[in-house]
Write a structure and sequence with these properties.
Two copies of one chain form a homodimer. The first copy, chain A, is mainly alpha-helical. Chain A is about 70% helix and about 0% strand. Chain A binds a DNA duplex through helix 3.
Chain lengths: ~190, ~190
Amino acid sequence: MTNRATRTPSERIGPDVLTAAREILDDEGPDGFTVRAIAQRANVAPMAIYNHFDGVNGVLEALWIEGFEKFLDALTFETGDSDDDLLRTAVAYRSFALENRGLYTVMFMHRFRGFQPSIAAAQLAAQTYQTLVDSVGRCQQNGLFANTAASDAAQVIWSACHGYVSLELLGINFAADRDATYQLLLTTLRDGFR
Amino acid sequence: MTNRATRTPSERIGPDVLTAAREILDDEGPDGFTVRAIAQRANVAPMAIYNHFDGVNGVLEALWIEGFEKFLDALTFETGDSDDDLLRTAVAYRSFALENRGLYTVMFMHRFRGFQPSIAAAQLAAQTYQTLVDSVGRCQQNGLFANTAASDAAQVIWSACHGYVSLELLGINFAADRDATYQLLLTTLRDGFR
DNA sequence: GACAAGTATAGAACAATGTTCTACAGTTGT
DNA sequence: ACAACTGTAGAACATTGTTCTATACTTGTC
């Protein structure tokens, strides 16, 4: 409910809108993601979304960038034990997706009407992939992934993790124990690459 | 362009609408999927989509069912060599997705506004999964997947295949040789499960 | 403290969408 | 030939993204 008398300070509008947008995606999925709904939840005028972002697509772009920055951070481990780092990365991949359904939906699942990430935003996605490639590369010095290009192994791992969590988010993951089956996925990949 | 003078026979409307809907999804993705666009492409009045289907959601439901029936058929192999059958199934999984982008999008990727498959339609999806579980089960008699429940192994395989092709359809698969990297994914899983 | 500039707001307005309703006219079965 | 069926066009409505305008609140400056 927008309060007619009060007025949100400029510097709060950006964060408030993004938080509201993220919450709506988390709670209702893409269906509830409308200009008016976001503005109402952020306690802000619908116009604010055009003054502070480039409309709905601008909000999506901002969420995309925020998402990949958080994602990159969540996936990065450098403890010195590269095999363990990679395992942690894979586990963190799923945790991030489950804890940030909305962001993950924007980043990897739903095609929002008329939205296409900018070049810079797309590069952020590529950078995240590169992090995974680097992590695989460090493992190669220990003998793991000896017979494959790091980029190919990274693509395989990413695909498997993404597939598992995206089916989970869609509600069509039939595993009895989802944590355990994700572990099975990871150990199967590790053994398969040996 | 709807031709004012002519009138489409009743029995052609259903198939024509579904074909047009599939083509629009293949060509333009979810963005172009509107009642008016479908009707125009099918050379049919917009009203036909309400008389013959339950609106847009009815068309999606029909595509979902059509998709899973074709998918189930494409994935089924029983040559007697169960290990080879499973490999063929996995290869066919990707081929189906690439050749039926629109159907695959409806089935596994995009959340269309207000659409939820019926119970019967959801059971079709579960039945497809069951086919994969059965295929894995037959392999267990040869010693493959000896240490895991067939349903868990099936979930792992499905996840990996889905992840690979959905990233591919989204345009964020970075593999240099996509066919070869899909093969790498499959052999890695096979070796990992041994 | 007062004023001017900046900017958040409400509300109207437009196009595109899903959907419903109605009058009309082509098609088909008897 | 006629009646029942049903596909069609078109208007109409609610909801959506978007733009525009007038108003009024805030803030920086004197």
